[in-house]
Specification:
The chain is mostly helical. It has one domain: Winged helix-like DNA-binding domain superfamily/Winged helix DNA-binding domain (Arc Repressor Mutant, subunit A, Orthogonal Bundle). It is about 60% helix and about 10% strand. The protein has 6 helices and 3 strands; from the N terminus they run ααβααββαα. It has a 3-stranded antiparallel beta sheet with strand order 1-3-2. Helix 1 crosses helix 5 and helix 3 crosses helix 4. The radius of gyration is 18 Å and the shape is globular. The N and C termini lie far apart (about 60 Å). This is HTH marR-type domain-containing protein.
Length: about 160
């Protein structure tokens, strides 16, 4: 075998994957306590942090780990559970928005204190301020290269948000 298995690139991606998997496992139990999957939590967070607390379905797919059809299934399920609602786009009949509901915000409010504790204990608290700044800059650089749609819809659109 001619490939150097000690190549530091393998170590870098391995460490990243192990850290991500470890954090994901820590978060999963806490999400389950609040009757949410990790994907549902991600959708609620993306919507809550977006202008007007809504995103076009295609932008939501671009910002999450879901395909367009996957985001449709998740939003449909969350709509049935009352956590989000769909809203038609006034300027494009082919598009629709996912909008976080008051029940979705309440569920997020229930989850966030424990989630923040876990983030602090197992992620942020492991790093000094300069290390965290460097890590965030590096992650943004990588994210922008591999997922240029990750910030789609994250700025105010020309269409005003519907009244909640």
């Amino acid at each position: 075998m001619s490939t150097n298995l000690d190549d530091p690139r393998f170590t870098a991606i391995g460490l990243f994957t192990e850290a991500f998997t470890g954090l994901t496992n820590r978060f999963a139990a806490q999400f389950e306590e609040h009757r949410l999957s990790a994907v549902e939590f991600e959708v609620l967070m993306r919507l809550a942090r977006s202008p007007g607390h809504r995103l076009r379905m295609t932008d939501l797919a671009g910002q999450t780990s879901l395909s367009t059809s996957g985001v449709t299934r998740v939003v449909d399920r969350m709509d049935r559970d009352g956590l989000v609602r769909r809203e038609a786009c006034a300027t494009d009949r082919r598009s629709s928005y996912a909008v976080i509901t008051e029940a979705g915000r309440q569920r997020l409010d229930e989850v966030l204190p424990g989630h923040i504790e876990l983030l602090q204990q197992w992620f942020i608290g492991q790093l000094g301020p300069q290390e965290l700044d460097g890590l965030m800059a590096s992650l943004r650089k990588i994210r922008d290269a591999v997922n240029p749609c990750a910030t789609a819809g994250s700025t105010d659109s020309a269409e005003p948000a519907a009244a909640a």
